[in-house]
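Re: that backbone. Tokens:
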């Protein structure tokens, strides 16, 4: 049986992505994550905040477009 350590694997993936994003930036490309958020659901807001934190941690620019209904 093969056991996977999810935290360790996630760290490996983040490290790989950080390297790839840095390479793109060296080439003059700026990766971005743009999110359109409609409404004010607290669970959705928390999910978006987690994605923003992850994106910024690996060097991806983040922009939120929030519209209320």
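Recovered sequence:
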């Amino acid at each position: 049986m093969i056991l996977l350590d999810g935290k360790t694997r996630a760290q490996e993936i983040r490290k790989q992505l950080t390297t790839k994003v840095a390479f793109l930036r060296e080439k003059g490309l700026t990766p971005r994550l743009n999110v359109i958020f409609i409404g004010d659901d607290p669970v959705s807001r928390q999910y978006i905040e987690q994605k923003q934190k992850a994106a910024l941690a690996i060097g991806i620019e983040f922009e939120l477009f929030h519209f209320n209904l």
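The chain has a mean pLDDT of 95. Residues 44 and 50 are 10 Å apart (CA to CA).
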